[in-house]
Amino acid sequence: MSTEYALQDSWHRARRRMDCMEATYDPGTIRHLTALGVGPGMRCLEVGAGGGSIARWLADRVGPGGEVAAVDIDVRFLSDLPPPVSVHECDVRVDPLPGDGFDLVHVRFLLAHLAERDEVLDRFVAALRPGGWLLVEECDSVSTAAMVPGTPHETMMRHAERVLRQLIDVDMGRALPGMLTSRGLDGIGVDCHVPFAEGGGPEAEWMLLTVGQLHEATGGLADEETFARWEAALREPRTWVPGGAIVSAWGRRAG
Ligand SMILES: C[S@@+](CC[C@H](N)C(=O)[O-])C[C@H]1O[C@@H](n2cnc3c(N)ncnc32)[C@H](O)[C@@H]1O
Protein backbone atom coordinates (compact mmCIF):
# COMPACT_ATOMS: atom_id res chain seq x y z
CA MET A 1 0.00 0.00 0.00
CA SER A 2 1.41 3.45 -0.86
CA THR A 3 0.53 6.93 0.44
CA GLU A 4 -0.44 8.02 -3.07
CA TYR A 5 -2.93 5.16 -3.18
CA ALA A 6 -4.43 5.71 0.27
CA LEU A 7 -4.73 9.53 0.40
CA GLN A 8 -4.70 10.60 -3.23
CA ASP A 9 -6.05 14.01 -4.29
CA SER A 10 -8.09 12.35 -7.04
CA TRP A 11 -10.40 10.86 -4.38
CA HIS A 12 -13.96 12.19 -4.96
CA ARG A 13 -14.05 14.01 -1.59
CA ALA A 14 -10.40 15.16 -1.57
CA ARG A 15 -11.27 18.82 -2.17
CA ARG A 16 -13.64 18.90 0.81
CA ARG A 17 -11.04 17.10 2.94
CA MET A 18 -8.47 19.74 1.95
CA ASP A 19 -10.93 22.57 2.83
CA CYS A 20 -11.50 21.09 6.29
CA MET A 21 -7.76 20.59 6.86
CA GLU A 22 -7.16 24.24 5.96
CA ALA A 23 -9.95 25.38 8.31
CA THR A 24 -8.33 23.37 11.11
CA TYR A 25 -4.68 24.32 10.65
CA ASP A 26 -4.55 27.67 8.78
CA PRO A 27 -5.10 29.88 11.86
CA GLY A 28 -1.95 28.47 13.53
CA THR A 29 0.11 28.65 10.34
CA ILE A 30 -0.97 32.25 9.74
CA ARG A 31 -0.06 33.13 13.33
CA HIS A 32 3.46 31.79 12.77
CA LEU A 33 3.87 33.45 9.36
CA THR A 34 2.74 36.77 10.82
CA ALA A 35 5.20 36.46 13.71
CA LEU A 36 8.02 35.77 11.22
CA GLY A 37 7.25 39.13 9.61
CA VAL A 38 5.90 38.05 6.23
CA GLY A 39 5.00 41.30 4.51
CA PRO A 40 4.97 43.43 1.35
CA GLY A 41 7.49 42.68 -1.37
CA MET A 42 8.65 39.33 0.02
CA ARG A 43 9.47 36.33 -2.18
CA CYS A 44 7.85 33.14 -0.86
CA LEU A 45 7.93 29.45 -1.78
CA GLU A 46 4.86 27.45 -0.68
CA VAL A 47 5.67 23.74 -1.05
CA GLY A 48 2.97 21.06 -1.28
CA ALA A 49 0.49 23.91 -1.70
CA GLY A 50 -2.49 21.50 -1.68
CA GLY A 51 -5.77 23.43 -1.72
CA GLY A 52 -3.94 26.78 -1.99
CA SER A 53 -5.25 28.63 1.06
CA ILE A 54 -1.82 29.57 2.41
CA ALA A 55 -0.57 30.60 -1.06
CA ARG A 56 -3.66 32.82 -1.30
CA TRP A 57 -2.97 34.35 2.14
CA LEU A 58 0.69 34.93 1.22
CA ALA A 59 -0.34 36.64 -2.04
CA ASP A 60 -2.50 39.09 -0.12
CA ARG A 61 0.27 39.69 2.39
CA VAL A 62 3.23 40.22 -0.01
CA GLY A 63 1.18 42.28 -2.48
CA PRO A 64 1.89 43.03 -6.14
CA GLY A 65 5.58 43.73 -5.50
CA GLY A 66 6.12 40.30 -3.99
CA GLU A 67 6.20 36.75 -5.31
CA VAL A 68 4.56 33.49 -4.26
CA ALA A 69 5.68 30.29 -6.01
CA ALA A 70 3.17 27.53 -5.20
CA VAL A 71 4.53 24.05 -5.85
CA ASP A 72 2.72 20.70 -5.83
CA ILE A 73 3.03 17.33 -7.51
CA ASP A 74 -0.71 17.63 -8.21
CA VAL A 75 -1.89 21.15 -9.07
CA ARG A 76 -5.57 20.35 -9.61
CA PHE A 77 -6.72 22.61 -6.73
CA LEU A 78 -4.43 25.54 -7.58
CA SER A 79 -6.07 26.90 -10.72
CA ASP A 80 -7.79 29.99 -9.28
CA LEU A 81 -5.02 31.67 -7.28
CA PRO A 82 -4.57 35.44 -7.69
CA PRO A 83 -1.36 37.27 -8.68
CA PRO A 84 1.43 37.35 -7.68
CA VAL A 85 1.07 33.55 -7.28
CA SER A 86 2.74 31.34 -9.89
CA VAL A 87 1.85 27.64 -9.86
CA HIS A 88 4.46 24.95 -10.56
CA GLU A 89 3.79 21.25 -11.05
CA CYS A 90 6.82 19.74 -9.43
CA ASP A 91 7.87 16.60 -7.56
CA VAL A 92 10.16 18.03 -4.90
CA ARG A 93 12.06 14.73 -4.68
CA VAL A 94 13.40 15.02 -8.22
CA ASP A 95 12.43 18.26 -9.98
CA PRO A 96 14.23 21.60 -9.61
CA LEU A 97 12.48 24.12 -7.35
CA PRO A 98 11.20 27.25 -9.14
CA GLY A 99 14.02 29.60 -8.18
CA ASP A 100 16.06 30.37 -5.09
CA GLY A 101 16.93 33.32 -2.84
CA PHE A 102 13.49 33.15 -1.17
CA ASP A 103 12.66 35.22 1.92
CA LEU A 104 10.37 32.41 3.12
CA VAL A 105 9.94 28.72 2.41
CA HIS A 106 6.86 27.13 3.99
CA VAL A 107 5.88 23.46 3.94
CA ARG A 108 3.05 21.75 5.85
CA PHE A 109 2.15 18.05 6.05
CA LEU A 110 4.49 16.90 3.29
CA LEU A 111 7.86 15.71 4.63
CA ALA A 112 6.29 12.94 6.75
CA HIS A 113 5.18 11.33 3.46
CA LEU A 114 8.65 11.33 1.89
CA ALA A 115 11.41 8.78 2.40
CA GLU A 116 13.77 11.39 0.88
CA ARG A 117 12.84 14.01 3.50
CA ASP A 118 16.44 14.82 4.50
CA GLU A 119 17.58 15.56 0.95
CA VAL A 120 14.36 17.49 0.28
CA LEU A 121 14.80 19.60 3.41
CA ASP A 122 18.41 20.37 2.36
CA ARG A 123 17.03 21.73 -0.90
CA PHE A 124 14.48 23.91 0.91
CA VAL A 125 17.26 25.42 3.04
CA ALA A 126 19.40 25.98 -0.08
CA ALA A 127 16.45 27.81 -1.70
CA LEU A 128 16.51 30.50 1.04
CA ARG A 129 18.43 33.75 0.80
CA PRO A 130 20.81 34.31 3.73
CA GLY A 131 18.51 35.49 6.55
CA GLY A 132 15.43 33.94 4.90
CA TRP A 133 12.98 31.94 7.04
CA LEU A 134 12.01 28.28 6.81
CA LEU A 135 8.72 27.22 8.46
CA VAL A 136 8.11 23.46 8.50
CA GLU A 137 4.93 21.95 9.99
CA GLU A 138 4.31 18.23 10.38
CA CYS A 139 2.04 15.82 12.23
CA ASP A 140 2.88 14.10 15.49
CA SER A 141 1.10 11.25 17.26
CA VAL A 142 1.52 13.00 20.64
CA SER A 143 -2.19 13.90 20.55
CA THR A 144 -3.15 10.22 20.98
CA ALA A 145 -2.29 10.67 24.66
CA ALA A 146 -5.08 13.27 25.00
CA MET A 147 -7.81 10.81 23.93
CA VAL A 148 -10.07 9.28 26.56
CA PRO A 149 -9.38 5.51 26.62
CA GLY A 150 -12.23 3.26 25.50
CA THR A 151 -14.23 5.96 23.71
CA PRO A 152 -15.27 5.42 20.07
CA HIS A 153 -12.87 8.21 19.10
CA GLU A 154 -9.87 6.66 20.84
CA THR A 155 -10.65 3.20 19.43
CA MET A 156 -11.02 4.45 15.87
CA MET A 157 -8.02 6.76 15.96
CA ARG A 158 -5.81 3.91 17.21
CA HIS A 159 -6.94 1.79 14.25
CA ALA A 160 -6.19 4.70 11.90
CA GLU A 161 -2.80 5.34 13.49
CA ARG A 162 -1.80 1.68 13.08
CA VAL A 163 -2.44 1.94 9.32
CA LEU A 164 -0.98 5.43 8.98
CA ARG A 165 2.27 4.23 10.59
CA GLN A 166 2.82 2.02 7.53
CA LEU A 167 2.34 4.99 5.20
CA ILE A 168 3.89 8.03 6.83
CA ASP A 169 6.12 8.99 9.74
CA VAL A 170 3.41 9.87 12.27
CA ASP A 171 6.09 11.00 14.76
CA MET A 172 7.76 13.39 12.31
CA GLY A 173 6.87 16.56 14.24
CA ARG A 174 9.15 15.83 17.17
CA ALA A 175 12.12 15.35 14.80
CA LEU A 176 11.83 18.85 13.32
CA PRO A 177 13.79 20.85 15.94
CA GLY A 178 16.80 18.54 15.50
CA MET A 179 16.51 18.64 11.72
CA LEU A 180 16.60 22.44 11.67
CA THR A 181 19.39 22.63 14.25
CA SER A 182 21.61 20.20 12.34
CA ARG A 183 21.26 22.37 9.22
CA GLY A 184 22.78 25.36 11.03
CA LEU A 185 19.65 27.53 11.07
CA ASP A 186 19.48 30.53 13.43
CA GLY A 187 16.59 31.82 15.53
CA ILE A 188 14.97 28.39 15.81
CA GLY A 189 11.55 28.22 17.46
CA VAL A 190 9.12 25.33 17.91
CA ASP A 191 5.44 25.07 18.78
CA CYS A 192 3.10 22.11 19.16
CA HIS A 193 -0.67 22.56 18.84
CA VAL A 194 -3.47 20.03 19.36
CA PRO A 195 -6.72 21.27 17.80
CA PHE A 196 -9.88 20.13 19.59
CA ALA A 197 -12.85 19.37 17.35
CA GLU A 198 -16.52 19.85 18.12
CA GLY A 199 -18.82 17.24 16.56
CA GLY A 200 -20.26 18.58 13.29
CA GLY A 201 -17.52 21.21 12.81
CA PRO A 202 -14.83 21.36 10.09
CA GLU A 203 -12.11 19.89 12.33
CA ALA A 204 -14.31 16.84 13.04
CA GLU A 205 -15.22 16.59 9.36
CA TRP A 206 -11.52 16.60 8.44
CA MET A 207 -10.99 13.55 10.67
CA LEU A 208 -14.12 11.85 9.31
CA LEU A 209 -12.93 12.36 5.73
CA THR A 210 -9.27 11.40 6.31
CA VAL A 211 -10.06 8.29 8.31
CA GLY A 212 -13.02 7.60 5.99
CA GLN A 213 -10.69 7.69 2.97
CA LEU A 214 -8.31 5.26 4.70
CA HIS A 215 -11.27 3.08 5.70
CA GLU A 216 -12.31 2.93 2.04
CA ALA A 217 -8.78 2.46 0.68
CA THR A 218 -7.88 -0.36 3.08
CA GLY A 219 -11.17 -2.22 2.83
CA GLY A 220 -12.05 -1.39 6.46
CA LEU A 221 -9.93 -0.06 9.34
CA ALA A 222 -12.39 -1.50 11.87
CA ASP A 223 -15.71 -3.33 11.83
CA GLU A 224 -18.66 -1.29 10.55
CA GLU A 225 -20.30 -0.99 13.99
CA THR A 226 -17.16 0.57 15.51
CA PHE A 227 -16.85 2.91 12.54
CA ALA A 228 -20.54 3.91 12.75
CA ARG A 229 -20.35 4.67 16.51
CA TRP A 230 -17.29 6.86 15.94
CA GLU A 231 -18.91 8.63 12.99
CA ALA A 232 -22.04 9.36 15.07
CA ALA A 233 -19.89 10.78 17.91
CA LEU A 234 -18.07 13.13 15.51
CA ARG A 235 -21.36 14.44 14.11
CA GLU A 236 -22.78 15.23 17.55
CA PRO A 237 -22.62 18.96 18.47
CA ARG A 238 -21.31 19.68 21.99
CA THR A 239 -19.06 16.60 21.81
CA TRP A 240 -15.39 17.56 21.86
CA VAL A 241 -12.47 15.33 20.84
CA PRO A 242 -8.75 15.97 20.33
CA GLY A 243 -7.61 16.09 16.73
CA GLY A 244 -4.19 15.56 15.18
CA ALA A 245 -1.26 17.48 16.66
CA ILE A 246 0.86 19.73 14.47
CA VAL A 247 4.44 20.68 15.28
CA SER A 248 5.62 23.94 13.72
CA ALA A 249 9.35 24.63 13.62
CA TRP A 250 11.06 27.65 12.13
CA GLY A 251 14.58 28.91 11.63
CA ARG A 252 16.59 31.43 9.59
CA ARG A 253 19.34 30.63 7.13
CA ALA A 254 22.61 31.93 8.53
CA GLY A 255 24.64 34.45 6.59
C1 LIG B 1 -1.44 16.44 3.11
S1 LIG B 1 -1.42 17.53 1.74
C2 LIG B 1 -1.07 19.09 2.53
C3 LIG B 1 -1.46 20.27 1.69
C4 LIG B 1 -1.10 21.63 2.28
N1 LIG B 1 0.32 21.75 2.51
C5 LIG B 1 -1.84 21.87 3.57
O1 LIG B 1 -1.28 21.64 4.65
O2 LIG B 1 -3.01 22.31 3.51
C6 LIG B 1 0.14 17.16 0.97
C7 LIG B 1 0.33 17.86 -0.36
O3 LIG B 1 1.66 17.59 -0.82
C8 LIG B 1 1.60 17.24 -2.18
N2 LIG B 1 2.75 16.35 -2.48
C9 LIG B 1 2.88 15.04 -2.14
N3 LIG B 1 4.06 14.56 -2.58
C10 LIG B 1 4.68 15.60 -3.22
C11 LIG B 1 5.94 15.73 -3.90
N4 LIG B 1 6.78 14.70 -3.99
N5 LIG B 1 6.27 16.93 -4.44
C12 LIG B 1 5.41 17.98 -4.34
N6 LIG B 1 4.20 17.92 -3.71
C13 LIG B 1 3.85 16.74 -3.16
C14 LIG B 1 0.25 16.56 -2.35
O4 LIG B 1 -0.18 16.59 -3.71
C15 LIG B 1 -0.63 17.38 -1.43
O5 LIG B 1 -1.20 18.50 -2.09
Automatic annotation (TrEMBL):
Residues 45-134 form the Methyltransferase type domain. The keyword Transferase applies. Its EC number is 2.1.1.-. GO terms for biological process: methylation. It is an enzyme of class 2 (transferase). InterPro entries: Methyltransf_12 (IPR013217), SAM-dependent_MTases_sf (IPR029063). It comes from the Bacteria. GO terms for molecular function: methyltransferase activity. Pfam families: Methyltransf_12 (PF08242). The keyword Transferase applies. CDD domains: AdoMet_MTases. Keywords: Methyltransferase, Transferase. PANTHER family: METHYLTRANSFERASE. This is Class I SAM-dependent methyltransferase. It comes from Pseudonocardia benzenivorans.
